[in-house]
């Protein structure tokens, strides 16, 4: 189904569920594990409803980090099956109501070591377990994400291909345009396409501005579908990924990223640029919230359930049109049109010599 949809049009992905649920109080920053699926299923379901109403066409089951290696850290390895089951079940409940597709989800395991073949087997075993617990509950295709080793991506792809479902493989790039096993991105994605990946692309770490130039190179290289799911946190040329942004002299990740959140307008512009360079699957990763998604959907000319509540600024009492503007405070009115510093000068006569 996903492949038919992609042939027709751009598919809009979803947002950053782990980070959004962390902000809402249901995920612990640090482990970033998704036990919310069994401990507060109502919170997970609400977020997926929010994504769907904002225009997401695919809901990823929240099974990111629901593998043994991470569940071990929080003492919940015995919940492996339940978390994977329930996350898929919840995504399906929402998908059914809003006509979305459900993607199973795998992520980097942190055990893969290119020089140690035993870890390759263990990585495959852990992916297989997650797939086994996800697939029986309704999966249209699988996404393997935030992979930094081509070797680990290859293992995820093989595990997914063994199910017969379509595979979307997205790699994460921090400072460099190559994988941690030193394969330049064009070669990495070409190999994944040749090995049967249906959709390849980039997710997480970088913001749209610093991801799209890499994505354009992928687009030029491969002939399969291409996906981008950047973070919605502002990065810079010197610091192109979100984990190393600095706030007041120290690292902002992960508790002080708030000042870096991109606006919905920036995410809408990202969507248009991604469309322009031929990206087929456009979504967001960490930091991408429902208000971003709605703006992204509307940038594509779509009307989504929550477009019902889209901005109607003309009705606003301060910034609205003539018939609706009621504000009389000169300073506020002034600041609509001028930089606040200019208003200060104009209203109070300050700044004069
Ligand atoms: Zn992310």
List keywords for this structure.
binds zinc ion; 353 residues; single chain; two-stranded antiparallel ribbon; TIM Barrel
The radius of gyration is 22 Å
Q: Which ligands are bound?
A: zinc ion
First and last CA, distance: 69 Å
DSSP helical segment count: 14
Which spans of ≥5 residues are poorly predicted at pLDDT below 50? none
What is the helical fraction, as a range of percent?
40-55%
In terms of DSSP E residues, the strand content is 5-15%
Strand-pairing-aware structural class: alpha/beta
CATH architecture of the largest domain: Alpha-Beta Barrel
- In CATH, the topology of the largest domain is named TIM Barrel
CATH class of the largest domain: Alpha Beta
Overall, the morphology is: globular
| Number of DSSP E strands | 10
Largest sheet: 8 strands, parallel
**CATH homology group of the largest domain:** Homocysteine-binding-like domain
Going across the biggest sheet, name each strand in turn: 1-10-7-6-5-4-3-2
Topology as H/E string? HEHHHEHHEHEHEHEHEEEHEHHH
Describe the model:
The protein has helices at 2-8, 17-24, 36-39, 41-53, 68-73, 80-98, 117-135, 150-161, 185-194, 208-221, 264-276, 290-299, 330-337, 340-348; strands spanning 11-12, 58-60, 101-107, 141-147, 167-171, 199-203, 225-229, 246-247, 250-251, 281-282. With 353 residues, the protein is α/β, with parallel strands linked by helices. It has two domains: 2-309, Homocysteine-binding-like domain (TIM Barrel, Alpha-Beta Barrel); 313-348, no CATH class. Residues 16, 204, 231, 285-286 line the site of zinc ion (ZN).
